[in-house]
Amino acid sequence: MPDILYEDNHVLVVVKPPNMLSQADDTGDTDLLTLLKEDIKERYNKPGNVYLGLVHRLDRPVGGLMAFARTGKAASRLSAQLRTHEMGREYLCVVTGETETLEDTFTLTDYLVMDAIRNRMVVCAADVKGAKLAILEGRVIDRRQGTALCSIRLSTGRKHQIRVQLSSRGTPLWGDNRYGNGIPGQNIALWGYKLTFEHPTTHNKMTFHAMPSGGIWNMYADLLTVPEDTEPPREPTFLHLTPEVIRTLENFDRRRDRVIITREEDEEADAETEETGSPESSGYSETEETEL
């Protein structure tokens, strides 16, 4: 059973193991959402179906922190935080290749599109049909033996975004056999290590950390320690949405007629979600098997 870091009547925070689906697909393989529903049903002796809203996702090969909603209202409010970038998600990765070309801090801005023939995402020109803006910010924490340990924050959530953008610079993720030079048996070196959000009912700021271990991560084991203070820093972190990035994202979303639920509309959205009572109807984001 995956590690549960936090649980109350509204929220569940879990560490997803690598190579596990976030939710069920056509393969029929074990998925985290189903496992957690079965666990809740058994532990609390609940009759009937258990509600658990999927707020965001991680690619199958990626491990790390995930938040789930235990009520429709929580799902609506957490999803709103995700859409407006109030929910903070940060990742660790180990890259290989031309690591010396990565600056100590960097911002990568591209347009991505699905290559249907090769069944993979590729960097493309902005005017290509179906192209989506992809922005990430990162920092090199350390460089060892031809690799680099980086922390990443996404400004957008696109399919395989981190993997594609870093690979396009000649620095693919260690163990990535789709966008890099990984080999069978290797785990991709990408991990969701930090998750920050406002609790949907108490409105307290909550911060969680989980560190990877084993494989290539052992090379940086001395750096991968969970901070004792889990409160968010008083000063902004080095990775943040600048006003320019926010304006770019707003303009991009407006052109595609995407609707952002505002705080004023939140209560109406809560009521609608409560009526549907379906995990599939709440908490969806453009992430995985979509995002990393």
Question: How would you describe this structure in keywords?
Answer:
292 residues; alpha+beta; Pseudouridine synthase; 11-stranded mixed β-sheet; 19% helix
What does this structure look like?
Helix content is 19%, strand content 27%. The protein has helices at residues 32-43, 72-83, 161-168, 243-255, 266-276; strands at 4-7, 11-16, 53-54, 63-69, 88-95, 105-115, 120-124, 132-144, 147-154, 190-198, 205-209. Strands 1, 2, 3, 4, 5, 6, 7, 8, 9, 10 and 11 form an 11-stranded mixed beta sheet that branches. It is of the alpha+beta class. It is built from 5 helices and 11 strands; from the N terminus they run ββαββαβββββαββαα. The protein has one domain (4-281): Pseudouridine synthase (2-Layer Sandwich).
Give the secondary structure arrangement, pairings included.
Blueprint: E1 4-7, E2 11-16, H1 32-43, E3 53-54, E4 63-69, H2 72-83, E5 88-95, E6 105-115, E7 120-124, E8 132-144, E9 147-154, H3 161-168, E10 190-198, E11 205-209, H4 243-255, H5 266-276
Parallel strand pairs: 4-10
Antiparallel strand pairs: 1-2, 2-4, 3-4, 5-9, 5-10, 6-7, 6-8, 8-9, 10-11
Helix pairs in contact: 2-5
